[in-house]
From TrEMBL:
This is Hint domain-containing protein. Pfam families: Hint_2. Residues 185-288 form the Hint domain. It comes from the Bacteria. It comes from Paracoccus thiocyanatus. InterPro entries: Hedgehog/Intein_dom (IPR028992), Hint_dom_N (IPR003587), Hint_dom_sf (IPR036844), Intein_N (IPR006141). GO terms for biological process: intein-mediated protein splicing.
Amino acid sequence: MAVHTLGFISLSDFSATNNVAPNNKNGLTVGGTEWGGMPPAGTTISFNYEAIGSLNVESDYGYFTDDPWNPGWTGAEWPQHKQENTDEITIGNTTHATGTLQLENEYEVILSGDDGNDYVLVAISAVTVNPDPAGDWDYRTGPEHGVIGFTFQGPWPPEGTELTFVQNVDGEQIDWDNFVPDDEIPCFAGGTLILTDRGEVPIDDLRVGDLVMTRDNGLRPLRWIGSHRLGAPVLMLKPKLRPIRIRAGELGENIPATDLVVSPQHRVLVRSSIARRMFGAAEILVAAKQLLQIDGIDVAEDLAEVEYFHMLFDRHEIVISNGAQTESLYTGHMALQSVGKAAREEILALFPELLTADYQPEPARTLVSGRQGRRLAVRHAQNQKPLIPAAP
C-alpha cells in the first residue's frame, strides 16, 4: 500500500467570519462551529501559514474518498479500503497511535481568492478503528471525531490571499496526485528578464505575439505563455520542485548578468571543450539541477514560493534570459503531460501535430541526460573551468 503525503492545517489554525450554527458536517468547521449548507454572503476564511504541516495517509486505493466503509454490515463496520494515519495524530487532548484512525474526505469547499483564482479546500475527518482480532482487516469502533483539519486539492493560495466562500459539496473521490501539483517541465521564475525587440522585459509582462530575440532565428513571435504559482505547502511537500538559482557570472564571464532563477528541469546552454569531448557537439543544453556541483548554482531554499512561466514558440528556441542563453518550452511528451489539462488543451489547439503518434520535436541543441549532465558538472568543477569560456 502507498503512503501519500498531504499538506495539512489543523482546525485550530483556521478562522472564519460569519460562522453559523452546526449543520451535520455540511459546512466548514472552524473553532468548533460549522458553516451550514450555504453560509452568509461574504463569508471569508484565513489560516496560519506558518502552521502548515504534513499528513501521511496509507491507502490501498488510487483516490481519497468519503465514507470508505463496507456497506451492509451491522455493528462494527469494516473499511471498504484503507485511508489510515501513519503518524500519531492529536485530537483535543488525545493522541491517536499510527493506524488507529480512518481518514476521510468529508467535504470540499470552493473558495474565491482575491488574486483572481479559485481554490478547492478539502475537509478531513477521522473515525477510530481497531485491529481485527482475526488479523484480516481493521474495523470501525468509533467515535467519529468530525473534521480535524484541512488540505487543498490542487494549488494552494499564496500567503495573505483573502478567501471568500463560493459553495461546498459532499466529499468526492479525489486522485491522490491531485493534492500536490507536480511540475517537471522547464520554467522561468517570475521577474526573469527576457530579451525582446523592446529590450529586456520581465517575463511576467510578455504576451502572445510579442517578439522575443532567439539565438538561431532572430526575433520570433511568442505563440503561447503560461504560468502557475507553487506556494510554500507544495514546495515543502515536493522539494524537488524548488527553483535553482544561478548566481551572476557563474556560467561564464558576466553570464548570467544578474542572478537567474529557473525550475530544476530548465536547460541552460553550455559551450566548452569538456562538453565537446564528451558529446561531440560544440554546444549542449543541460538541466539546471544537473549543475549543482558548480559553485554558485544552488537550490533557492530561501524562496517561500515561486511563480513559474513557460514560453512556447513555433519551434524549440534558445532565448536570452538575464543575459544567459536558455531554452524555451520543449514540446516533448513528458512536458505536455506536466503542464496541466487546460494548458495542454491550449497548446494542442495551436499545434495539433503534437497529437501525431510519431511526432518528435527537434531540439535546439543536443539535450544531455541527467547522468551525463552531472558528469559534465563534476568535470568542470574538478578542472575549475567555466561552462561558457570567455570569447578569445
